[in-house]
Amino acid sequence: MTIEVNVPSFPESVADGTLVTWHKQVGDVVEAEEILADVETDKVVFEVPAPSDGIIESILIKEGATVLSGEILATLGEVEAGTAHKPAPAIVEQRSAVATEVSTDEADAFITPAARKMIEEKSLDAKQIQGTGKGGSILKEDVIKHLENSSQKAPPAAASVDIDQVSGERLEKRVPMTRLRKRIAERLLESQSNAAILTTFNEVNMQPVMELRAKYKEAFEKKHGTRLGFMSFFVKAVCEALKRFPEVNASIDGDDIVYHGYFDIGIAVGSPRGLVVPILRDADQMSLAEIEATIRDFGARAQAGKLSIEEMTGGTFSVTNGGVFGSLMSTPIINPPQSGILGMHKIQERPMAENGQVVIRPMMYLAHSYDHRIVDGRGAVLFLVAIKELLEDPARILLDL
User: What is the fold of 107-154?
Assistant: First the structure.
């Protein structure tokens, strides 16, 4: 019996996709739910799992081709009795190599197909990953945790395009833009063309937040199981400021201004495919611990390409942190149809005048880009001042003052 392998069902907002990678070849024996291919859309990457155990009889669509929802990608045939769960030779070799790398004393340990795919894509060393599966097997969740821990210890590497270096030659390499990159370009142009964007700046003394964080970070992590970062303070401050200046939390729909009675905050997150902005729904109702845990989860799943379209749809205001890359100041671009975005930057010690004395303080420049069509300069400036005041006296955030 022949079984069809189909493109996953796309949401209504997604017209088509690009088949970017085949992970299996004709003749490979596969297990049900094993990932066969990846289909990239302008928002997320969909994994194509095997609908059942079987052997790949034919591959109908080549890498790089445009595909539609439900289109047939390949066909599976039945395998001989007793071989349905036997991996193909290539898989046997990979698992054997993995068992050797992980531990010569754990010959039964291996990497699951989903985990192996992530390890290969991220060029990771399997020996550095702690397996929690049966017999020390490395699961997909172990790889995600390893990526999350690694991102905390090292600064993000700059994206690059491989170009062979040959002395005396001026080489170029032309590569097609990914669907996500093209969509990002379209939205940036849309934002600048359809909104009257202005940016106002201020600076905040981060010492109070840093002292509070240093005092309670160990107890916080012990109780809540997640680290206490700076972003949760900024999100809570943004929500409070938006309550005071509702026009910043509004959007334009035709000739109407829509004032949102909820606070869905987009958090800009870097991923191998480009910048994505998952949404913290009802962020004003979340605790600091919930905000931190959710953002860390977003970051890990963005690296693994596991964010869903629903998680990146909507939002009433956004926050982006260029400071993690060393940016001292920038003018962030609004994410339409939102009317505002807050840019965080690098914390840097600078001499400041306080009560007639020069003191050294950890300072951060803040940038608030806003749509001048519905947000006046006064409201934009006072909105940013409110954020500054809340961060410089963080007890106001906890006491709702």
Answer: Dihydrolipoamide Transferase (4.10.320)
